[in-house]
Specification:
mainly alpha
Length: 168
């Protein structure tokens, strides 16, 4: 009689652990997807502020890179964002321009969103890569979380630009 109670207890504990693990995998996957959406919003915000900056102050190359970043297909997004970052770094940004400050702020928020996204994707991939999760095929209805690999998008702040100038 005791072995029936013991076996029932073991099965109940195993079922509880499996349900908890499945919930954890789903929560991590949800958070990674939300972080990807937030990252996308920050990418669009930075490209839009860069387009405004380029339209008002700088040349056609920066404007073209910003427009491409706004209109690119998802599979070509990383290359377009890297190009925009290179164009922004190559531009001599005016530290007194409010549009420059907006681009720098958007770049910093983008860097933070990218770091959060990377951390959440790493966690979701680690959870989905565990042997028990793979064996039970948890999370199989969702695509595997993908990293978004771009250069560090942070730009120098206007104070940093002024500090680099000789005689200031």
């Amino acid at each position: 009689m005791w072995w029936v109670v013991g076996a029932t207890l073991v099965v109940a504990l195993l079922a509880t652990y499996l349900v908890w693990t499945a919930g954890r995998v789903e929560r991590l996957q949800d958070r990674a997807e939300l972080a990807a959406r937030a990252l996308d919003a920050h990418l669009l915000r930075r490209a839009a502020t860069a387009a405004v900056l380029a339209e008002r102050r700088y040349g056609a190359e920066l404007y073209a890179a910003a427009r491409v970043a706004l209109e690119v297909r998802p599979d070509e997004r990383e290359a377009a964002e890297n190009d925009l970052t290179r164009q922004l770094r190559a531009s001599q940004l005016d530290p007194d321009d409010p549009d420059t400050e907006a681009v720098i702020a958007a770049s910093r928020r983008l860097a933070l969103a990218r770091q959060v996204h990377t951390d959440l994707v790493r966690g979701a991939r680690a959870a989905r890569g565990r042997p028990l999760v793979r064996l039970m095929r948890m999370g199989r209805r969702r695509p595997w979380p993908q990293y978004f690999d771009i250069d560090d998008p942070t730009l120098a702040a206007p104070e940093d630009i002024l500090a680099d100038r000789p005689g200031t």
